[in-house]
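TASK: fixed-backbone design
INPUT:
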């Protein structure tokens, strides 16, 4: 394939936008090469500026669960835009989408809308701290909760007592309140409770991790977190920015049968517009301004166009819940097909999958946490990524990202993807 126009556009972009992109993973740094620039998208397909088309396996990193330019969402956006794009004054639509979300998710009474997943997680942590009157939080290595300071922390040289910032600009004072644990390892969580009795406000976790590839929780892990939180009067926060309205109507809480105290949303909820949200039971949510003392606000929060898109999206999912099983089945087909092809070769690999999320890691060892996810062979991954791209398949341009399938993907697209994969394997 030829990427001439994209390459020219990337050069221009780099002159006026840091790294040429507005979010780092888009720049292809992990895989090399030039990012493609998109002209339009429809259903399961992306069309770039050079006239190439691709089957899309990232679905805008999750939101486009029903495929691109899904008509009910597009119609809702168009008709709402004609009535004005923002007022900063309440609309009926905000209550309608909140009512629908509260109905779809079994365990929430109230929900507050924000503009991104980052904002949702940042606000949920503030609320948890305000509610418990404690300062520390536990997060897991390799879990991503947006780019606010408290979450940009990783273990410093094997130290597990407290994390070191992994971005300049995050202060040590912030880092000392974020305790790091290992995903799927309850002992590493318990350790912090022993070290910091009555100081931990919340545990925040991706109930199915999707930011170090896809890593499902092992049996007992989430239930174990629930018990530890109950025992220590700590809030359990499920970051369902990825899994919410994707794994089931009620997200991971429903799919995995564990209730959290606060839940954050984003991605699917906005139907492709910038929306995030956090939700929980009344007693906790009423601590938020203007009802309670914990401050949180937003000029464009609950924006009418974004709410119209999200409402159209949730309405469809609520009325057609078979989407979730259908997506899981498509994901299973891809995973099984790839497994069969890989088993004929002598390439070490792991395929992780949960619902409509999956990832392929080029390693022999089971990928269960950040450490094992990091063992993947990145050269193989680069070749794989570009091999598939050149055959018309758009995969996440990093081994640490999950694939997100969308419902527009047909059986024919799946067959095409598997034969592209077979072809790549045979020419490797
Ligand atoms: C994408 C993501 C976020 C951040 O959401 P943004 O809208 O990009 O700010 C937070 N948590 C998880 C689990 C995510 O996947």
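OUTPUT:
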């Amino acid at each position: 394939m030829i990427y001439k126009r994209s390459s020219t556009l990337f050069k221009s972009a780099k002159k006026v936008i840091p790294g040429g992109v507005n979010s780092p993973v888009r720049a292809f740094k992990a895989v090399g090469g030039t990012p493609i620039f998109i002209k339009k998208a429809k259903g399961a397909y992306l069309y770039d500026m050079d006239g190439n088309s691709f089957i899309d396996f990232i679905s805008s990193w999750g939101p486009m669960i029903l495929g691109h330019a899904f008509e009910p969402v597009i119609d809702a956006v168009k008709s709402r835009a004609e009535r004005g794009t923002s007022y900063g004054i309440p609309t009926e639509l905000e209550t309608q989408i909140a009512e629908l979300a509260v109905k779809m998710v079994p365990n929430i009474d109230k929900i507050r809308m924000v503009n991104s997943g980052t904002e949702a997680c940042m606000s949920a942590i503030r609320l948890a701290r305000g509610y418990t009157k404690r300062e520390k939080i536990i997060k897991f290595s390799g879990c991503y909760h947006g780019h606010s300071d408290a979450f940009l922390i990783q273990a410093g040289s094997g130290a597990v007592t407290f994390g070191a910032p992994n971005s300049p600009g995050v202060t040590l004072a912030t880092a000392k309140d974020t305790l790091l644990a290992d995903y799927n390892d309850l002992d590493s969580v318990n350790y912090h409770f022993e070290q910091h009795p009555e100081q931990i406000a919340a545990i925040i976790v991706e109930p199915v991790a999707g930011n170090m590839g896809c890593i499902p929780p092992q049996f007992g892990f989430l239930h174990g977190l629930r018990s530890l939180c109950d025992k220590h009067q700590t809030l359990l926060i499920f970051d369902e920015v990825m899994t919410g309205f994707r794994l089931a109507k009620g997200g991971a809480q429903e799919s995995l049968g564990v209730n959290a105290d606060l839940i954050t949303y984003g991605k699917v909820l906005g139907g492709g517009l910038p929306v995030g949200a956090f939700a929980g039971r009344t007693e906790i949510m009423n601590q938020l301004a203007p009802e309670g003392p914990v401050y949180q606000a937003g000029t464009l929060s609950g924006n009418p166009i974004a709410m119209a898109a999200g409402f159209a999206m949730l309405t469809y999912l609520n009325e057609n819940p078979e989407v979730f099983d259908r997506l899981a089945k498509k994901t299973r087909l891809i995973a099984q097909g790839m497994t069969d092809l890989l088993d004929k070769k002598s390439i070490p690999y792991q395929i992780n999958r949960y619902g409509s999320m999956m990832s392929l890691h080029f390693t022999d060892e089971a990928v269960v946490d950040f450490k094992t996810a990091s063992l993947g062979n990145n050269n193989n991954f680069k070749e794989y990524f570009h091999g598939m791209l050149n055959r018309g398949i758009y995969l996440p341009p990093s081994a640490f990202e999950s694939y997100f399938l969308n419902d527009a993907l047909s059986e024919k697209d799946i067959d095409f993807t598997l034969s592209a994969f077979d072809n790549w394997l045979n020419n490797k």
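COMMENT: Residues 116-118, 121, 144-146, 206, 210-211, 239, 241-242, 266, 276 surround pyridoxal-5'-phosphate (CB under 6 Å).
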